[in-house]
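Hi, here's the filled form for the chain we discussed.

Project: internal
Contact: R.S.
Residues: 436
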Amino acid sequence: MAFVELITLTLFHITVAPGVASYALPFAHDLKRQKNYIVLGFPILRWSTGALWDEANLWLGALAQSIPTQGIRIKSIRSLAYALITFMRFVEGEGRPWNYLPLIPADRTINRYRKHLIDARESGELAPSTVSAKMSVVLRLFRWAQINKIISAVAFEVTGVKVVKVPDQYGRELAVSVSFSNLAIPNRKASADRVEGGLMPVSIDYRNELIDFARDHLSYDLYLMLRIAFESGLRIESICNLKVNTVNWGTPDFFDAELSWLQVGPNVDGAPVATKFGVQGAVMIGTALLDELKEYCKSIRRITRENRASEDCGELLFITKNGNSYGRRSDTDRSAINSLVFAAKEKARKMGLNFDDFHFHRARATFGVAIVQCGMECEPSIPLSDILSFARDCLLHKDVETTMKYVRFLQNSKIKAKYANEYTAAMMGRYNERSK
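And the returned structure, exactly as it came back:
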C-alpha cells in the first residue's frame, strides 16, 4: 500500500553562472539561521511499489520553500502528505492514473474519489470534517498541478463566487462573498444519528465477529487493543501510549469484582498516558481483560520487544517487533497502528469478511452508547444528570456536551424504532385489509 517516508530535506540556494550552477546553504556566517534550511521529518509519498509520486512530492517541496520564513510549518506539510495517502490508496484500488481527466466528469479519478469520500462519510467510516479536509487537500494539489502545466488543461472543476448573508453581532445581515467549487465537500454537521466524531457505533454482532477474527487471524497485540477499545472506550492514541505500570496498577471496582479501573492521563506519576486535552481520570476495564494484559506484560513476546526498544518506548505496554511505539511519538513519526489496521481489513476481505468501515473510534462510540444505555434503562431510573456525569468520566470528555450526543443518539433511535414499528403495522394492516 502507498505510504509516507520521512527524510531530511536541505533547502539549498542555487546560483547559476554562465556554464555552471552551484548550490549551498544560505547564511554561512550564521549557523543558527542556517539550521532553518535543514528540515527534519519532511514527508515524501511512495506508491505501494515503492515508486515516488513525483508530482505530489514536487508540490510538497514547493511548499517547503516557505518553512525557513515561517510561512508554513513542517507539521502542516506532513498533514497534507498523510491526507493524500487516502487518495493514493483509492487510486491504486481503481487501477487508473491519479490525473485521469476524460471529458465525462463522472469517469474522472478525482470525481470518483469525491464520491468515495462522501460514501465513507454517510456510512460513518469517516467524520464529516475529515472528509472535507481530505478532499480539500486533493483539490489544492490538482490546482497547483494545472497552474504549473503538470496535468491536462481540461477544467476539472467548476468554480465561482457566491454571496451569502450572515448576521453580525448586532443581528444585522451582512453580505459576504464566498468562493465555491463543485468538487469541494462541505463539512456538514453530523446528524443526531451519529455520536462522537460523527461516527456510528457498531452492533454487538459486528463487534463480536471482529474480535473473534482478530483473535484467530491477526496479531495478538491488535486483538488486545481492540478489546481495550471496546471495553474501556479509550482512544487509540491513548491505547498506544499505555504503560506496563498502567496495567499493573489497575484497581478492582469496590462493588463489582468483574470490573476494574485504570488511571490515565499525562500527570499519572510513574505511568503517564497521553489523553485528548490532557484530561486525567479513571477508565473502566473488565477484570478478565486486565488479568490477560498483566500476563501479556510478562510474556516472552513483549519482553523480547522491550529488549529491542529505545529508552522512551521500553515502558509501553504495546511495542512493535522493531521496538517502536504503535502510535506517533512525535510529529516526525508514522503511526504503525494505521498500517496494522489497513492490513487487517485486506486480510478480512480475502476471507470473505468486510470490516472496511471500521475505525478504532467506532469502538469508543460503541462503548459510550452502551454506558449511557445501561444508565437510561436502569430500574429504578437514574437521573439524567448522574448518567451524564458517569459517562463523561468514563469517556474522559472535557465537555459534557460531547457526552450529551450519546443521549440524543439513543433518544432518536427509540423514536425511529417506534415510528418504524407503527408505520409497518399500519401498512401491513392496510395491505391485509385489501387482500381479504
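Let me know if anything looks off before we file it.
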